[in-house]
């Protein structure tokens, strides 16, 4: 049964992955018990998101565009059967119109594929609507679809973007969501694939296989990964042209629901730091300050206080026997000392945010900070990321927090008063 579900999910993933050969057959559309009905569509609205053009230090600007489309029933054009929204980046590269066109054409192709899928899906939505007409006790709710993105790395070598899609169908127990990455060489505009990242791909590929398999058996992943994952690592991650992306921390691989784990496991990732990517072309290496992304429960050995000795650090979540992440308690150990009580003092409400980080906030001092995020559903403005230093005396020193859940695209620094502030890619404070 798992393999059947996996095959279906992989077909959907391929449809949206923008692989070398376009997928156009309707076999990639989830099977339905109802007959598809043609629908009419309102005019799609495309707009520049207000104040959404971002300049980078590399002559690259990113403008967020949005498209909103409503699909109506063929039999009753006043009835909405599916509402869709897509946001995506438009890239401008100074003095390189040919390169930016290659990149923008590839990005727009991903968006067009999304809308092609939703046009098909609206037919199924209309069929569901027709069925509710015969039942006075049933009220139809329109399907919904969202397409969004995150810029994971943007510099003078690489542009790497993760696209996210969420679909909800009337009457479903839950929505379906998945993510995938596309990466470009900003000096040529060409899309990069795993086999183009190394001059010796055979050795590079074997390194990836070993690293991913070694990570998947770690205790941190035991509640996420299917027990018979080994054969799926290659077929689901390394053979999928859109399962990976670059960020400042390294090469990350995405496991969507039903790929290596159950729906309940959600989307989780494996990250391979740049210093472990043996054989990666030097042109694609990250040259900025140190940053390391870690899945909760994975330990790391790194000198975080500049005393010349590596420190053993592990941040994990204790979810108890019932695997309740909503009430997970945070655990932080450094060199065998438990600092969890200091985390308790922060009254973390939902610390499961997918990753924790080591990050060199100020390259001119000897410290590498530890970043731990917390999401606050009751008060979204309270969602933030806390930063700590581990000093040479063995004390954990709280440095403050910045708004939001930290990710590889965020920049933080200390201001003249020694307070942490959130910055844009240019190092300018975010207002």
Automatic annotation (TrEMBL):
Secreted found in the keyword field: no
Domain DUF3298: 239-275
Endpoints of the signal sequence: 1-20
Keywords: Signal
Superkingdom as given in the UniProt entry: Bacteria
Chain segments carrying region Disordered: 26-53
Pfam families reported for this sequence: DUF3298 (PF11738), PdaC (PF13739)
Every Deacetylase PdaC domain range: 80-176
Low complexity composition-biased segments: 32-50
Protein name: DUF3298 and DUF4163 domain-containing protein
